[in-house]
């Protein structure tokens, strides 16, 4: 891996979506978002969690699951990465797991030539119960077992998904990062309370950028997601944000800014545990 001094600044973008129960509709929306991001100069593009399907029932994702390396959702991602010459991180999609009644909630990374270069299966599974709001991902999702990173031109990039944001030890296990990626579908309730707070905390404590792509709006199923896709810098400052609705959040990940923050406040070097 190149030292940080040899890294170049990299334009990045997060695509915010309001996905539907139709895979075809969602792929069309994602294609448009990726094209918009690339037109703005992004070299890395992040889609949100469940970009390909926000179903009417939890089991809908099981019905459209794919084997790794085979299926229309993965073909779309590989083709889009190659067509636009970008690093494309496909939010999440359902991949087959040993349990036929569940899936992995998987984030796949495609290089600008269309090759798959990294995979992360969501480790922490969301469960929330408050009044009529009730979620239990473990019913239809098999938890992953290991962190995942990849090396991009800007530096080491850490993969994570939605509920992972609440577990700082995951990011420390990845080592020093230039960028954390966070595709999500936060509920309106939990997002309003904690989303920005947690994103900025992860940026500050890891002294790196955080790029978050969210579902953001009222879906055809009636579910309401928080949105607020954003890019946060290593000092915890919000570089760009989109509150609600489909669109693109763009900015630059700058290794010089990372180095500046770490030199002024060398917290990573002061760690004891």
UniProtKB/TrEMBL annotation:
Q: Which Pfam families match?
A: CN_hydrolase (PF00795)
InterPro entries linked to this entry: C-N_Hydrolase, C-N_Hydrolase_sf, Nit1/2_C-N_Hydrolase
Superkingdom of source? Bacteria
Keywords for the protein's UniProt record, in alphabetical order: Hydrolase
In this chain the CN hydrolase domain maps to 10-255
- Keyword Hydrolase appears in the UniProt entry: yes
Q: Which Gene3D superfamilies match?
A: Carbon-nitrogen hydrolase
A GO molecular function annotation here is: hydrolase activity, acting on carbon-nitrogen (but not peptide) bonds, in linear amides
Q: Which PANTHER family match?
A: DEAMINATED GLUTATHIONE AMIDASE, NITRILASE-RELATED
- The protein here is known as Carbon-nitrogen hydrolase family protein
Species this protein is from: Verticiella sediminum
Query: According to the entry, what is the taxonomic lineage of the organism?
Result: Bacteria, Pseudomonadati, Pseudomonadota, Betaproteobacteria, Burkholderiales
């Amino acid at each position: 891996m190149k030292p940080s001094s040899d890294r170049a600044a990299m334009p990045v973008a997060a695509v915010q979506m309001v996905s539907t129960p139709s895979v075809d509709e969602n792929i069309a929306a994602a294609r448009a978002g990726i094209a918009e991001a690339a037109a703005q100069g992004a070299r890395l593009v992040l889609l949100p969690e469940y970009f390909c399907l926000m179903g009417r029932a939890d089991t809908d994702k099981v019905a459209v699951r794919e084997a790794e390396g085979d299926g229309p959702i993965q073909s779309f991602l590989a083709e889009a990465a190659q067509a636009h010459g970008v690093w494309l991180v496909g939010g999440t999609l359902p991949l087959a797991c040993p349990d036929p009644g569940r899936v992995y909630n998987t984030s796949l990374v495609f290089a600008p030539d269309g090759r798959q270069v990294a995979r992360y299966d969501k480790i922490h599974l969301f469960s929330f119960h408050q009044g009529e709001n009730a979620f239990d991902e473990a019913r239809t999702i098999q938890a992953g077992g290991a962190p995942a990173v990849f090396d991009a031109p800007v530096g080491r990039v850490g993969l994570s998904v939605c509920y992972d944001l609440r577990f700082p030890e995951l990011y420390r296990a990845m080592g020093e990062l230039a960028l954390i990626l966070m595709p999500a579908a936060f509920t309106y309730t939990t997002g309003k309370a904690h989303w920005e707070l947690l994103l900025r905390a992860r940026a500050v404590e890891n002294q790196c950028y955080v790029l978050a792509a969210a579902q953001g709006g009222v879906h055809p199923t009636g579910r309401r997601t928080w949105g607020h896709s954003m890019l946060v810098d290593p000092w915890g400052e919000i570089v760009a944000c989109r509150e609600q609705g489909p669109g693109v959040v763009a900015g630059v990940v700058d290794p010089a800014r990372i180095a500046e923050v770490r030199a002024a406040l060398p917290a990573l070097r002061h760690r004891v545990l």
